[in-house]
Design a protein that fits this description.
Belongs to the UDP-glucose/GDP-mannose dehydrogenase family. NAD(+) binds at residues 30, 35, 86, 121, 158, 269, 334. The strands form three sheets. This protein has a six-stranded parallel sheet, with helices on both faces. By secondary structure, the chain is α/β, with parallel strands linked by helices. It is elongated, with a radius of gyration of 24 Å. It contains 17 helices and 14 strands. It has helices at residues 10-21, 33-40, 51-61, 70-76, 97-109, 126-140, 161-166, 178-188, 203-234, 238-246, 267-280, 286-310, 337-347, 360-367, 379-383, 403-409, 424-429; strands at residues 2-6, 25-29, 64-67, 79-82, 115-118, 148-151, 171-174, 198-201, 318-322, 351-355, 373-375, 388-391, 414-417, 433-435. α17 (424-429) links the parallel β13 and β14 (433-435). Helices cover 45% and strands 13% of the residues. α9 (203-234) packs across α11 (267-280). The protein has two domains: 2-201, 3-Layer(aba) Sandwich (Rossmann fold), CATH 3.40.50.720; 235-435, NAD(P)-binding Rossmann-like Domain (Rossmann fold, 3-Layer(aba) Sandwich), CATH 3.40.50. It binds nicotinamide-adenine-dinucleotide and uridine-5'-diphosphate-glucose. Uridine-5'-diphosphate-glucose binds next to α9 and α11.
Length: 444
């Protein structure tokens, strides 16, 4: 099939490359000309495992092309995917300007009927707004083609994006058009082989499904973080509680890790946007408000422990920081808990020596040169003469470090662990003061 994808970000690029990989001819268009130049050279502008290989392979077959020219994309695709950003507006609602710009361009350039598919995360009613925008632009040209706008939300996770796209848990399609369902069934057939994962529903239900999925995952995390804070007070270990509750299949083990709070480009923005939808319809999202509040406090939790340990003024203190990305296997630092911690440490007068396996350039881009921030070449270089080690991202390489080397390099054997990587008893036996999240240490 001939497919076009608007947006070459995480979602657009993965969508384009995965469709090309199963034999489709795909054109991916982006307004960011630097990004398109890199992609045409086989260079992936972000860190996503497996992406470079998939990109180069499919560029070489000629089945995957990148352009900044929307006319090429509109003309090429039988199916046109919209996968552009929907960042939070000032009031927390989803900013739809990029989605609607693409809709307008499609309407300006279409010369035959097309199946338009929205993959961006958007509030209920957006597919209708996209359709109306296309119809208006067509109308300005004196044209009137039938237009189907399908809602096909994306559920991939950064760091596992290709596997998630190639082997999805489900493929949600919001449409009432039998023709569109048929086209989408054919397009997704290679990813839908061993059992039917296609769930067809109304457009509004599909749009809401995406937000509900992220909101329930964020809720699980905030719930566990709240339990973890209680565990600290009562002397329980949240890791043992996690095992105790997760073994009930009605609860399950996934997304029960307490820590320094959720981040990334999706959960924070989508919880806000869903709360905004409630307000727009005269309601109040009481649970989501609490989920957000707990998460905001959780971003401060490790800093509160640090302050309790050292006192309010951290002038002259230096901390080793392991992990800057919002989660492992990505260089993405959007809404990363490390960013909140860095500003709190700096405001209290501390210096930071940081290491992250993939997010160093991103940190350099965000913070530039600062006297109180040093980016180090290795986890051990970051420890050099620091007062304590702080862990913010659970990269695999941090899981079994050389603890004697850590002890030798730090001024004092103290670890603040925002991801609960180590066993508190063993750490005590090794001679460390070890503060996790909800491990029964009531520092706060
Ligand atoms: N990142 C994820 O893990 C993820 C997963 C599922 C869903 N989503 C949703 O998918 C959407 C895209 O997210 P992302 O992370 O890929 O965003 P992103 O910021 O990485 O990429 C968006 C891209 O769209 C491009 N763009 C903007 N306007 C354009 C236009 N008019 N024409 C062509 N390109 C244009 C931008 O230049 C950018 O490269 C969002 O709604 C997001 O919530 C993201
Ligand atoms: O038990 C857990 C699991 C995750 N997190 C944190 O939650 C955030 C989000 O993690 P994850 O969901 O793995 O990353 P994303 O790439 O943001 O993916 C989410 O957001 C995407 C964009 O909407 C969706 O497509 C995915 O299904 C959804 O998992 C990160 O900060 C994690 O550290 C926890 O604190 N505890």
């Amino acid at each position: 099939m001939r497919v076009s994808v608007f947006g070459a970000g995480y979602v657009g690029l993965v969508t384009a490359a995965c469709f090309a990989d199963v034999g489709n001819h795909v054109v991916c268009v982006d307004v960011d000309s630097e990004k398109i130049t890199l992609l045409n050279q086989g260079i992936v502008p972000m860190h996503e495992p497996g992406m470079e290989n998939l990109l180069v392979t499919n560029l070489n077959t000629g089945r995957l092309q990148f352009t900044t020219d929307p006319a090429v994309a509109v003309q090429h695709g039988e199916v046109l995917f919209i996968a552009v950003g929907t960042p939070p507006d000032e009031d927390g609602s989803a900013d739809l300007q990029y989605v609607l710009q693409v809709a307008h361009v499609i309407g300006q350039l279409m010369t035959e009927t097309k199946c338009v598919v929205n993959k961006s995360t958007v509030p209920v009613g957006t597919a209708t707004a996209v359709k109306n925008t296309i119809l208006r632009a067509l109308n300005e040209r004196g044209l009137d083609y039938p237009v189907d706008v399908v809602s096909n939300p994306e559920f991939l996770k950064e760091g596992a994006a290709i596997a998630d796209f190639m082997r999805p848990d489900r493929i949600v399609l919001g449409t009432d058009s039998p023709e569109a369902i048929e086209v989408m069934r054919e397009l997704y057939a290679p990813f839908n082989r061993n059992r039917d994962r296609l769930i067809v529903m109304s457009v509004a239900s599909a749009e809401l499904t995406k937000y509900a999925a992220n909101a329930i995952l964020a809720t699980k995390i905030s719930f566990m973080n709240e339990m973890a804070n209680l565990a600290d007070s009562v002397g329980a270990d949240i890791e043992q509680v996690r095992l105790g509750i997760g073994s009930d299949p009605r609860i399950g083990f996934d997304f029960l890790y307490a820590g320094c709070g959720y981040g990334g480009s999706c959960f924070p923005k989508d919880v806000k946007a869903l709360r905004h939808t409630f307000q727009a319809f005269g309601g109040e999202a009481k649970i989501l408000q609490a989920v957000e509040n707990v998460n905001q406090q959780q971003h401060h939790r490790l800093f509160d422990k640090i302050k309790k340990f050292y006192g309010e003024d951290l002038t002259g203190r230096c901390f080793a920081l392991w992990g800057l990305a919002f989660k492992p296997n990505t260089d993405d630092m959007r809404e990363a808990p490390s960013r909140t911690l860095l500003s709190l440490l700096w405001a209290a007068g501390a210096r930071v020596q940081a290491y992250d396996p993939k997010a160093m350039s991103e940190a350099r881009r965000i913070y530039g040169q600062r006297a109180d921030f040093k980016l180090c070449d290795s986890p051990h270089a970051a420890l050099d003469k620091a007062d304590a080690l702080i862990i913010m991202t659970e990269w695999k390489v941090f899981r079994s470090p050389d603890f004697s080397a850590i002890k030798n390099q730090l001024k004092q054997a103290v670890i603040f662990d925002g991801r609960n990587l180590y066993d508190p008893k063993r750490m005590k036996a090794r001679g460390f003061r070890y503060f996790g999240i909800g491990r029964g240490e009531s520092l706060v």
